[in-house]
Design brief:
The termini are far apart. The protein is of the alpha/beta class and 516 residues long. β17, α13 and β18 form a beta-alpha-beta unit. The strands form 5 sheets. Strands 9, 10, 11, 12, 13, 16, 17, 18 and 20 form a 9-stranded mixed β-sheet that branches. Strands 1, 2, 3, 4, 7 and 8 form a 6-stranded mixed β-sheet that branches. A 3-stranded mixed β-sheet has the order 14-15-19. The radius of gyration is 25 Å and the shape is elongated. The longest helix has 22 residues. GO terms for molecular function: manganese ion binding; metalloaminopeptidase activity. One of its GO terms (cellular component) is cytoplasm. Keywords: Aminopeptidase, Cytoplasm, Hydrolase, Magnesium, Manganese, Metal-binding, Protease, Zinc.
Length: 516
């Protein structure tokens, strides 16, 4: 090959061959490097490397720029090129396209486009290097090291605990002189969402209510000086008169657990500005109103609300956020048996309201009703609950955004502001009395657990049902059913359970902490 005498003239496989011939590559090395390049603003623009990429280019006497120019057209957003043997410390370098540098918050997309582009590009570059069996990757901060870290950590996540053949385990670190504190924060944000993904992805026989509670307890153990964990069992639940919660759990052989977390980031302040509640159905068969078998395996993630809420508190503790947070997670299975709820049964919630259970597959709102009643005993400034509650939300918004139903404009603004930063978006949905009347017009009890027009406005009637157990002036219900899984919609998340919107909950809590 005529170019084998000068590795700067070749790229990809040709460059690997040239590197072998000239002895420039060390196959024993397991280190890789991800660098960013911006898309040209105009057709006549030259390459626009990030600060870290430009530094590497200087060390290589301009060879990186030269290779990028001769190896094809300018790198578009999300695309990558791999170069071999250029750098003695990094035998494999991935250069990724970051899109245009001039972009920011988009008024139609409701996110920061630059941040999203960085997350996607870095995730893609890290995956490529992981496929090259590299075990350590240094990552360009791309002038936003938090987003770069989130992309790296989220992009490399794989749940393969139960497989014999596992993906290469990769460690990452910031390359160069970027913002170390931003990188560390991004790593914690990403690891928090990955914890939720891990819990949601695991089979239901491996993450039962008790295993879920133990997992979160263990993850909070390093922060025992400012975190208190209470695992409440059936006797306590009965004492609290949580009849709705108990009615769902009685169909399963697995005992229910009511997990209560107290994160005291402000030990001198006894007030609780934020209370998070998560639906914890560790498997949802639909009960007597049995779901169709197709896709039922995904119902191992019906505890996504509890997973995201608890993971957000773990992350808040790791970040040492100066805020007090209480987390509540009613955990149980919804199974068919001779003891399970039957359509038409009437149960009594903690606040004394009676509920006609016309659909046993609408069980999430039953366990949340009791948890929301209990939440008010702490007199929090704001209550936010998260739940994979309705298929109707998936129909309405798909995976684009979490649906938010709230009685508070202030609370909506805080959640929306946080979601713009994280790119894990939220969208406000209606809490009209129109929907309330559809759950209070009930033949046998105070409330029906489904709207009288069945599927019409199903996500809205579910929210209206929950509102009947809320008296707090600042409450928000997050229906995360549509964002529960990822196929290819979010490029920095692989196919599977998404763990959304954990980062938005963390950013929201951080925003409240800054207001204190």
């Amino acid at each position: 090959h005529p170019s084998s005498q000068d590795p700067s003239l070749c790229s990809g496989t040709d460059l690997l061959l040239a590197s072998v011939l000239t002895g420039c590559v060390d196959y024993v090395s397991t280190q890789g490097l991800v660098l960013g390049v911006y898309e040209s603003e105009r057709e006549d623009d030259s390459l626009h490397l990030t600060e870290s990429a430009a530094g590497v280019d200087r060390v290589l006497s301009g060879k990186l720029t030269e290779l990028l120019k001769i190896s094809g057209p300018g790198l578009k957003k999300g695309k990558s090129r791999i170069f071999y043997g250029l750098h003695e410390d990094f035998p494999c370098i991935a250069v990724v396209g970051l899109g245009r540098n001039s972009l920011g918050v988009c008024g139609t997309e409701y996110w920061d486009t630059c941040k999203e582009n960085i997350r996607a590009a870095i995730a893609g570059g890290c995956r490529v290097l992981q496929n090259h069996v590299l075990t350590h990757i240094e990552v360009d901060g791309c002038n936003d090291s938090q987003s770069a870290a989130e992309g790296a950590v989220l992009g490399l996540f794989t749940y393969d605990d139960l497989k014999t053949k596992k993906k290469t385990r990769v460690t990452t670190q910031l390359h160069g002189s970027g913002c170390v504190s931003g990188w560390e924060k991004g790593v914690l944000y990403g690891e928090g969402q990955n914890l939720a993904r891990y819990l949601m992805e695991a089979p239901a026989n491996h993450v039962t209510p008790s295993v879920f509670a133990d997992t979160i307890t263990n993850r909070l153990a390093p922060y025992a000086d400012h975190v208190t964990v209470h695992k409440r069992y059936r006797g306590w639940i009965e004492e609290q008169q949580m009849g709705a919660f108990l009615s769902v759990s009685k169909g399963s052989e697995e005992p229910p657990v009511f997990l209560e977390l107290h994160y005291n980031g402000c030990p001198d302040n006894a007030q609780c500005p934020l209370l998070l509640v998560g639906k914890g159905i560790t498997f949802d068969s639909g009960g007597i109103s049995l779901k169709p078998p197709s896709g039922m395996d995904a119902m191992r993630a019906d505890m996504g609300g509890a997973a995201t809420v608890c993971s957000a508190i773990v992350t808040a503790a790791a970040l040492n956020l100066p805020i007090n947070i209480i987390g509540l997670a009613p955990l149980c299975e919804n199974m068919p048996s001779g003891k399970a709820n039957k359509p038409g049964d009437v149960v009594t919630a903690k606040n004394g309201k009676t509920i006609q259970v016309d659909n046993t597959d609408a069980e999430g709102r039953l366990i949340l009703a009791d948890a929301l009643c209990y939440a008010h005993s702490f007199n929090p400034r704001a209550i936010v609950n998260a739940a994979t509650l309705t298929g109707a939300m998936d129909v309405a918004l798909g995976s684009a955004a979490t649906g938010v139903f709230t009685n508070s404009d202030w609370l909506w603004e805080q959640l929306h502001k946080a979601s713009v930063v994280t790119g894990d978006r939220v969208w406000r949905m209606p809490l009209f009395q129109h929907y309330t009347r559809q759950v209070t017009d009930c033949q046998l009890a105070d409330l029906n657990n489904v709207g009288k027009y069945s599927r019409s406005g199903g996500a809205c009637t579910a929210a209206a049902f929950l509102r009947e157990f809320v008296t707090a002036p600042h409450w928000a219900h997050l229906d995360i059913a549509g964002v529960m899984t990822n196929k290819d919609e979010v490029p920095y998340l692989k196919k599977g359970m998404s763990g959304r919107p954990t980062r938005t909950l963390v950013e929201f809590a951080a925003g409240l902490a800054n207001q204190a």
